[in-house]
Amino acid sequence: MLKWNNCWKAAGAALVFLLVLPATAVASGFGIFTQGASSLGQGAAVIAHGNDPTAIFFNPALISKLEGTQLEIGTTLLFPSREFTSLTGERTDTKDAVFYPSTLYVTHRFSERLSAGLGVFSPFGLGTDWGDTWEGRYLATDSEMLTLTVNPVVSYRIVPRLALAAGIDIIYLDTTLEKKINLSGLNAAVGGLLGAGPFPDVGQKFSGDGTGIGFNFGVLYDVIDTLSIGVSYRSEIKVGVKGNSTFDSQVPGLLTKLRRKADLTLPQQVFAGICYTGLIP
To answer: CATH number of 3-78+91-276: 1.20.1250.20, 3.40.50.620, 2.30.30.40, 2.40.160.60?
Structure first.
């Protein structure tokens, strides 16, 4: 039996959502916790124990237990799928898509007390494509978000059984948000005054990016040889997103290329766990 099968997570909470950009479109955001094969196989129950550099993401205090220099590089194939059922019973499914968030983690132990590491990973992202004809097309049709975090950390073992760690999160965010604009009100108002027939829905696309800075810390306490407690925290990060809104057709005097900006907040995350290995013979 593998040692980690006897480890269980006592409590864990992660607020994973994305605040929408005002006035441009609505996009769904996703937390990405597929940071390594080992943690994925354990259901991310690795807050109080761990034996690889992905501990930088889950609880950086754990890197104090890693020997020498360690490197881990990986990627994960994700196939998100969502569905929506309207009040009329009509069902809409998102179009098939593949995403592959990749990771790089490296740690080095300088002494019995001091360790450091660097993580490069995507904490939020993915996307949804509902198509151009679904019921919510005036809110969103195709939404995609990419984030990339560079996270240097330092871990220090204060006493043999207690380690603390802290780091800085530098995040880059790139997003594309698309929706339809309903011009039925314009058609009713102007009629045939502009010398054209009824205006169809217009597609709007916002593309923008931005950066933000946050922090993270972790605590690991080995109560006894067979019992450990871990806690980690990642702060919320405010990102100033700037970009352009473009339209797939033009209505004279009304729709042009627009410069947009918005403040977007990525949520804070709190993790806690307990690992007990006393049942191993």
So the answer is: 2.40.160.60
